[in-house]
DNA sequence: ATAAAGTCCTGAAAGC
DNA sequence: TGCTTTCAGGACTTTA
């Protein structure tokens, strides 16, 4: 689930639920989601602290505390952040529960434990962000062209690469390339400026609508809305969609309308 | 049993 | 040739 729009939604959860609230207790229900931090240290450094303004870069969520360390969350493929009343039953995949004052708790829920939670000082936060490209929401057209220039692999691989642009995942990339009418396997270097401009523009539109929805919306008028169909067809032209593997991921695209590498149409 | 919306590591290819 | 960058594939993990 978690790509940029989902993580942005989790940030809102935090702002509504955790902002300025004090952590009164921490329960680590499955230490398998702790990354580079022990349960003991997590408890020691967070208990009694207030949560500051959460911020996001790409798919990473950073929650500063007034104790100096920052709680850093990554949600892998199945993670989420929930704001619950304490009487709501704990679910099997609630891996960490932060009890807050004022009768709220914050639950890091994750089925597969592909990523997790860490505790970082300023230096470590910088190191994480330094490894990422600019956040996809902030990339303007000329920066976008610069970031992609000279890449030799498939355009989808470049868009998926977090060190190039941070925040785009498998669904967003398929959606963006479909909207831009570009075959995901196209070598990036074969795209002319107009095609790149179209991809950038599609990225902006897809991101804006997705952030508003809190996820990549599975609307029938979007490619994403067809992913789970047995015989998916293109919402735009009706042709059968193709499903192959690009950059190691399932990739859905329309062989009829995703054909342009240049600025035609 | 296969595959899933993510990332890290490895070894290899491509580029200068 | 040699060094660096870029790329593809597998591992990690759990469940439908």
Shape type: elongated
The count of strands amounts to: 10
Structural class of the helix and strand makeup?
alpha+beta
Major sheet characteristics? 4 strands, antiparallel
Task: Report what the structure shows.
The chain has helices at residues 4-17, 39-46, 122-130, 141-148, 155-160, 170-180, 193-213, and strands at 23-28, 55-57, 60-64, 70-74, 79-84, 94-100, 104-110, 117-120, 242-246, 249-253. With 265 residues, it is of the alpha+beta class. The strands form three sheets. A four-stranded antiparallel beta sheet has the order 1-6-7-5. The chain has a four-stranded antiparallel beta sheet with strand order 2-3-4-8. Helix 1 runs parallel beside helix 7 (193-213). The protein binds a DNA duplex (16 and 16 nucleotides) through residues 1-3, 6, 32, 59, 74-79, 93, 110-115, 151-154, 157, 160-162, 169-172, 215-216, 224, 227, 247-250.
Structure at a glance:
By secondary structure, the chain is of the alpha+beta class.
List the helices and strands and how they pair.
Elements: H1 4-17, E1 23-28, H2 39-46, E2 55-57, E3 60-64, E4 70-74, E5 79-84, E6 94-100, E7 104-110, E8 117-120, H3 122-130, H4 141-148, H5 155-160, H6 170-180, H7 193-213, E9 242-246, E10 249-253
Antiparallel strand pairs: 1-6, 2-3, 3-4, 4-8, 5-7, 6-7, 9-10
This protein binds a DNA duplex (16 and 16 nucleotides) through helix 6.
């Amino acid at each position: 689930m978690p790509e940029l729009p989902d993580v942005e939604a989790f940030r809102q959860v935090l702002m509504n639920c955790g902002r300025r609230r004090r952590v009164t207790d921490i329960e680590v229900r499955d230490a398998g989601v702790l990354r580079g931090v022990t349960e003991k240290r997590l408890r020691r450094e967070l208990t009694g602290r207030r949560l500051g303004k959460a911020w996001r870069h790409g798919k990473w969520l950073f929650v500063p505390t007034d104790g100096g360390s920052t709680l850093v969350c990554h949600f892998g493929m199945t993670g989420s952040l929930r704001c619950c009343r304490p009487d709501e039953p704990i679910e099997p995949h609630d891996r960490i529960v932060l009890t807050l004052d004022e009768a709220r708790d914050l639950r890091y829920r994750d089925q597969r434990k592909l990523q997790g939670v860490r505790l970082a000082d300023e230096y470590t936060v910088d190191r994480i962000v330094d490894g990422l490209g600019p956040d996809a929401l902030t990339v303007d057209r000329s920066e976008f062209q610069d970031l992609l220039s000279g890449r030799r692999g498939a355009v989808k691989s470049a868009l998926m690469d977090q060190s190039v642009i941070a925040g785009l995942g498998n669904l967003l990339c398929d959606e963006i390339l479909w909207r831009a009418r570009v075959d995901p396997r196209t070598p990036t270097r074969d795209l002319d400026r107009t095609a790149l401009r179209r991809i950038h523009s599609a990225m902006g539109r897809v991101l804006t609508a997705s952030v508003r929805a809190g996820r990549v919306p599975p609307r029938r008028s979007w490619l994403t809305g067809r992913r789970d169909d047995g015989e998916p067809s293109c919402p735009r032209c009706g042709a059968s969609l193709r499903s192959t593997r690009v950059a190691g991921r399932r990739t859905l695209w329309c062989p009829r309308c995703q054909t342009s590498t240049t600025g035609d149409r």
